[in-house]
């Protein structure tokens, strides 16, 4: 296959790139600048002509992807992961525009200039699925499925909280893509993948813990850059998937006939802060003094925790998920290495 991959330098994107290349696919990685292309090349040095690059400095500008979607041999697959996911303060439009316009631009360019593309896979999120504003009672043990959408409106997206803007960016990007396909009837089918938190070791190189992607930096700050007697961090969104499993989900979404046109929740399980602390303190001696202790074995998950259901992806894509130990212990060991190298 010949695949166009956006966000190839990111946390999720670089794992997808790794899988695509090692399976023998030919990939054009889309990044924002030449220096980012060089970084990706230094992380994937051995693939020769199997890996090439397209630079798109502003994914929201009209026709932004017109040139990079053209290729000989032609593309048959597009995977779009690029989208801002950050806690640092950016404006609402800085979330919404790259997500929504960035999605539409790649779909328009693909339709107009790359008719050989048969499938576009979009990395969405459970942020587009879960109703975070619901009173606890109505989320009580709720199990979210592919039929659910968050209730965000344009008005609520623009009231100035980052969470709102992010949740809206993922919902409206996904809906815009579905609307585009319905109205424009391009040659390609769409597949969207909706993970909750994505954690796990990074495949791309980062120079310091300050450069970590958002979700892993949360684990670093709360569980590693801390102390045994610190308060146990709040659970936050306690559903997650390992980034390596999530990358495999993209490959299956790009290749399985069963995936065509579908929306899939990709969730490996639930985990509480106590559960993360216990795993790290048990498996990594150095963390016994660094990771908040809480109460060993207690409070694994609140009684009323909602969940996300991956049964559809397990059935249609044959997805399986690795253990909590593998995800969090592998990640924490790597975070300690990065911390040490600073
Ligand atoms: P990273 O920050 O590691 O990667 C984000 C990627 O998107 C980078 O390649 C980045 O490029 C690119 N990007 C961000 N903003 C823009 C922009 N304005 N214009 C062009 N490119 C941009 O994050 P993740 O790998 O975690 O996220 C990848 C995808 O996964 C996103 O769509 C995110 O919504 C989704 N996701 C992630 C979750 C998680 O827990 N990590 C959970 C649910 C969904 P650059 O380096 O140039 O900024």
Helical percentage: 25-40%
Order of helices and strands: EHEHEEHEEHHEEHEHEEHEHH
Task: Identify the CATH homologous superfamily of the domain at 2-199 and 239-268 and 308-315.
Answer: NAD(P)-binding Rossmann-like Domain
The description of the largest β-sheet is: 7 strands, parallel
CATH uppermost class of the domain at 2-199 and 239-268 and 308-315:
Alpha Beta
Structural class: alpha/beta
Strand content: 5-15%
CATH architecture name of the domain at 2-199 and 239-268 and 308-315: 3-Layer(aba) Sandwich
Question: What is the overall silhouette?
Answer: globular
First-residue to last-residue Cα separation? 39 Å
Tally of DSSP β-strands: 12
The radius of gyration computed from the alpha-carbon positions, rounded to a whole number of angstroms, is: 20 Å
Q: What does this 3D model show about the protein?
A:
There is one protein chain. The protein has 342 residues and is α/β, with parallel strands linked by helices. It has a domain of 236 residues: NAD(P)-binding Rossmann-like Domain (Rossmann fold), CATH 3.40.50. Helices cover 38% and strands 14% of the residues. Strands 3-2-1-4-5-7-10 form a seven-stranded parallel beta sheet, sandwiched between helices. Strands 8-9-11 form a three-stranded mixed beta sheet. It has a two-stranded parallel sheet with strand order 6-12. Helix 3 links the parallel strand 4 and strand 5. The chain is globular. The relative contact order is 0.13. The model has no long low-confidence stretch (mean pLDDT 94). NADPH dihydro-nicotinamide-adenine-dinucleotide phosphate (NDP) binds next to helix 1, strand 8 and helix 6.
């Amino acid at each position: 296959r010949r695949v166009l991959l956006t966000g190839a330098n990111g946390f999720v994107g670089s794992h997808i790139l790794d899988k695509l290349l090692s399976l023998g696919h030919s990939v054009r990685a889309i990044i924002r600048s030449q220096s980012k292309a060089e970084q990706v090349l230094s992380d994937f040095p051995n693939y020769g002509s199997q890996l090439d690059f397209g630079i798109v400095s502003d994914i929201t500008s009209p026709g932004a992807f017109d040139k990079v979607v053209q290729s000989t041999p032609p593309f048959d697959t597009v995977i779009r992961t690029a989208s801002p996911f950050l806690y640092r303060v950016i404006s609402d439009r800085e979330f919404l525009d790259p997500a929504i316009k960035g999605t539409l631009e790649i779909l328009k360019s693909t339709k107009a200039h790359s008719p050989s593309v048969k499938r576009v896979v979009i990395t969405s999120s459970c942020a587009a699925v879960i109703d975070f504003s619901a009173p606890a009672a109505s989320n009580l043990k709720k199990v979210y499925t592919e039929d659910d959408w968050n209730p965000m409106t344009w008005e609520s997206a623009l009231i100035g909280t980052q969470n709102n803007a992010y949740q809206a960016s993922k919902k409206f990007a996904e809906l815009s893509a579905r609307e585009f396909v319905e109205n424009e009837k391009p040659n390609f089918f769409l597949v969207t993948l909706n993970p909750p938190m994505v954690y796990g070791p990074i495949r791309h190189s980062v120079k310091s813990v300050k450069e970590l992607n958002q979700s892993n930096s949360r684990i670093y700050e709360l569980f590693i850059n801390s102390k045994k007697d610190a308060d146990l961090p709040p659970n936050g969104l306690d559903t997650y998937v390992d980034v390596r499993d999530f990358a495999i989900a993209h490959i299956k979404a790009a290749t399985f006939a069963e995936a065509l046109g579908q929306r899939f929740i990709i969730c490996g399980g639930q985990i509480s802060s106590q559960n993360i602390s216990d795993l790290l303190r048990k498996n990594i001696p150095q963390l016994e003094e660094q990771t908040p202790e809480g109460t060993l074995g207690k409070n694994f998950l609140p009684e009323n925790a909602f969940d996300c259901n991956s049964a559809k992806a397990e059935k249609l894509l044959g997805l399986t998920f690795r253990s909590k130990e593998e995800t969090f212990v592998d990640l924490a060991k790597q975070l300690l290495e990065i911390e040490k190298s600073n």
